Automatic annotation (TrEMBL):
Family, as annotated: Belongs to the major facilitator superfamily. Nitrate/nitrite porter (TC 2.A.1.8) family.
InterPro entries, per the entry: MFS, MFS_dom, MFS_trans_sf, NO3_transporter
Protein name as annotated: MFS transporter
Start and end residues of each Major facilitator superfamily (MFS) profile domain: 28-435
Subcellular locations according to the entry: Membrane
Length: 449
């Protein structure tokens, strides 16, 4: 049976020391969010430039919708695969490989000469969205129960900020390239080389400075007998075990409702502000970027609050918090859809964005406790749920009369999906076991202090 390596809780970090790189836990923490930031930046680098690219290739509304769907569709399968691969090979090898291979379509999209080739490379780029699963896996095996929610949410949130950064920075990079005398038709291509180069740099850093878990790398630990030899079917076994857990599928839906909405908004926000409120490309990029930059603190806040709630109410408290956050997101999304001016739309977007990012953090604050013996499978399936939500939103946009109508219907679906969080329940045995580990981690932290 595949399972998360049996690293004892006392070897995991019981606190997060943000300004330290001295321990393998904190090196993994910082490089995990940095790698995810760069991947997210590359994943959505095309989005703020779409008004320019649309003119370059003469794209129709349906073609743009297809490109947005392609950007997140492959990520579903990549996330399902990458989680079990982490169980088998370890997060260090998985991340390094993903960064190296994922840089290729990033360079390819800059060289696209037609709608068809652009769509192909945009589809392939979606695979780097699997980086999120590795980030969450790595921090889950590095941090103890009392802080794992905060660690997961912070690394994911800071990484997600790459989506906001790209909305703001890519138009500025394009403007700088044009200022240097390059034609706009070539400028957007040069601008898109930047994230690919950053991915190659991150691949080297991850390989050089991280290890799989507090005790070392999986391959070395298995060679010395400190970890069981899992064999070639390890990833598949982890995946099958996760598939049989109903909690996984409930969180699959909730993550589709929060992260799915998040990446859908990243794809359409700039275009929405341009088309509905006649903002300039630069102004629309800044407005759209404010949504993504909430991830700098809001997702971490969701994980932190989940950890604090768990201290008093246990695992059930984490589920109830998630319900409240997704409900708030759905209501805020309805408000955003009805906003009549750019100013009100931005305020509404920030409001529902706060709930959205916090819900993402609260979801993955629950993930490490769903099934410790199939962490990779659990993290991968739930992560894929986010992209299923984004793809569904993309098809909803194709069928809606307008983008505004699409956003309103999306708000209704998110509100209903919040009910899935209430249905996540744990057995008395699971709650007692996790409470014991939680108290043990608190004791070790107090002793260390």
């Amino acid at each position: 049976m595949a399972h998360q390596p049996n690293i004892q809780p006392h070897s995991k970090a019981t606190s997060i020391r943000l300004f330290s790189l001295a321990t393998p836990q904190m090196r993994a923490f910082h490089l995990a969010w940095l790698a995810f930031f760069v991947c997210f930046f590359a994943w959505f680098a095309c989005a703020p430039l779409m008004p320019v690219i649309k003119g370059e290739f003469g794209l129709t509304k349906d073609q743009i919708a297809n490109i947005n769907i392609a950007a997140v569709a492959v990520t579903i399968f990549a996330r399902l695969i990458i989680g079990p691969l982490c169980d088998r090979y370890g997060p260090r090898k998985a991340y390094t490989g993903l960064l190296l291979v994922g840089a290729l379509p990033v360079f390819g999209v800059a060289a696209a000469q037609s709608y068809e080739s652009f769509l192909f490379f945009r589809l392939a780029i979606g695979a780097i969205g699997a980086s999120f699963v590795i980030t969450q896996y790595h921090t889950s095996v590095m941090f103890a129960p009392n802080v794992v929610g905060t660690a997961n949410a912070t690394t994911a949130g800071w990484g997600n900020a790459g989506g906001g950064a790209t909305q703001t920075l890519m138009p500025l990079v394009l403007a700088a390239v044009i200022w240097l005398g390059v034609e706009q038709a070539m400028g957007w291509r040069i601008a898109l080389l930047t994230p690919g180069i950053l991915m190659l740099v991150c691949a080297w850093l991850y390989w050089r400075y991280t290890q799989d878990c507090p005790a070392g790398n999986y391959s070395a630990l298995r060679a010395t007998g400190l970890l069981p030899e899992t064999g070639k079917k390890a990833g598949w076994d982890s995946f099958k075990r996760a598939c049989g857990n109903y909690r996984v599928w409930l969180l699959f839906v909730t993550y589709g409702a929060c992260f799915g909405v998040e990446i859908f908004i990243h794809n359409i926000a700039a275009s929405y502000y341009v088309e509905r409120f006649d903002l300039s490309l630069k102004a629309a990029g800044l407005a759209a970027g404010s949504f993504g930059l909430l991830a700098l603190f809001a997702r971490a806040l969701g994980g932190y609050v989940s950890d604090r709630v768990a201290r008093r109410f246990g695992l059930d408290g984490r589920g109830l918090l998630l319900f409240a956050l997704i409900l708030g997101e759905g209501l805020g999304l309805l408000w955003f859809a009805k906003a009549g001016t750019a100013a009100f739309a931005i305020v509404a977007m920030i409001a529902f964005g706060l709930f959205t990012h916090m819900a993402c953090g609260a979801t993955y604050a629950l993930v490490p406790f769903v099934d410790r013996n199939a962490l990779g499978g659990v993290a991968g399936i739930i992560g894929a749920g986010g992209n299923v939500g984004a793809v569904a939103a993309g098809f909803l946009m194709k069928g809606a009369a307008s983008m505004q109508e699409c956003l309103f219907m999306l708000g209704v679906f998110v509100t209903v999906a919040s009910l899935c969080a209430i249905a996540v329940r744990f057995t008395a045995e699971q709650k007692a076991s996790e409470e014991a580990l939680y108290q043990q981690a608190l004791g070790e932290r107090a002793a260390a202090a």
